[in-house]
Amino acid sequence: MALGMISLLAICIFYIQVTQGQTGCAEVDSMTEAVAGKGFLLGCISCKRREEVPGCAIVDWHYKAAGSEEFIHIFRYEYNNPTILHEDFEGRLEWKGTMGTKDVQTGSVFIHNVTFNDTGTYLCTFHRTLYLPLNEEHVVISKEVELTVVEKANPELTAVISEIMMYVLIAVLQLWMIGVLIYCYRKVYAENEAREVRKAACSQSKLVELKDPCDGIYLE
């Protein structure tokens, strides 16, 4: 009962904190490894500190190739107007961010048909305007994604850990079964030994009872 009350209280506290802060928005880092020939989602999320404050945002994506020192402007999203700005990404970038509102908080884009030339640094920039009661506040938030393109997908850490845990569990279960068998064998052996001892004691007592104290002859 006490554990249930503690769990309920923790859930209530979490709910209150979320509703007072970033309701419906969580900043999750983008994945950083893409497979050549497949698609990849460049994640970029920028949550507002206060959801009740109206605002709007423009999202820009820049790209810097591996070994290069300069960023090139490859993509811009401004309320229902996604625009690819570089020929190397023409027809391969697709907006996967917030739709249907100017108040953009998710600025992710999807790269179709990833190539090894897509390896490099991607810079996501939010140009946000907050409409406060007395004035407007302009905020610029930037996030980088270091993308590596590989020929074959590497197993994720969680999958590796799960596989290791599975083998560990199998080994533990096998050891437990061996222990149970040894325990059962010893218990059965001890019971058999005790039964034999009881039989021997019973036979000895019968012999003592049947012995004639006068002539030392056993009765048949």
TrEMBL record:
Broad class of the protein's primary localization: membrane
Residues that span the membrane, as ranges: 164-185
Record has Membrane as a keyword: yes
Signal peptide range: 1-21
Biological process according to GO: cardiac muscle cell action potential involved in contraction; regulation of heart rate by cardiac conduction
Alphabetical UniProt keywords: Cell membrane, Disulfide bond, Glycoprotein, Immunoglobulin domain, Ion channel, Ion transport, Membrane, Signal, Sodium, Sodium channel, Sodium transport, Transmembrane, Transmembrane helix, Transport, Voltage-gated channel
Keyword Membrane on entry: yes
Span of domain Immunoglobulin V-set: 31-149
Location(s), subcellular: Cell membrane
Molecular functions per Gene Ontology: sodium channel activity; sodium channel inhibitor activity; transmembrane transporter binding
Membrane topology: Single-pass type I membrane protein
Gene Ontology cellular component terms for the protein in this record: voltage-gated sodium channel complex
Domain of life where this protein originates: Eukaryota
Family: Belongs to the sodium channel auxiliary subunit SCN3B (TC 8.A.17) family.
Quaternary structure (record): A voltage-gated sodium (Nav) channel consists of an ion-conducting pore-forming alpha subunit functional on its own that is regulated by one or more beta subunits. Forms homodimers and homotrimers. SCN3B is non-covalently associated with alpha subunits and induces the formation of alpha subunit oligomers, including trimers. Interacts with SCN5A/Nav1.5; regulatory subunit of SCN5A/Nav1.5. Interacts with SCN7A/Nav2.1; probable regulatory subunit of SCN7A/Nav2.1. Interacts with SCN10A; regulatory subunit of SCN10A/Nav1.8.
Protein name (Swiss-Prot/TrEMBL): Sodium channel regulatory subunit beta-3
Organism: Cyprinus carpio
Species classification: Eukaryota, Metazoa, Chordata, Craniata, Vertebrata
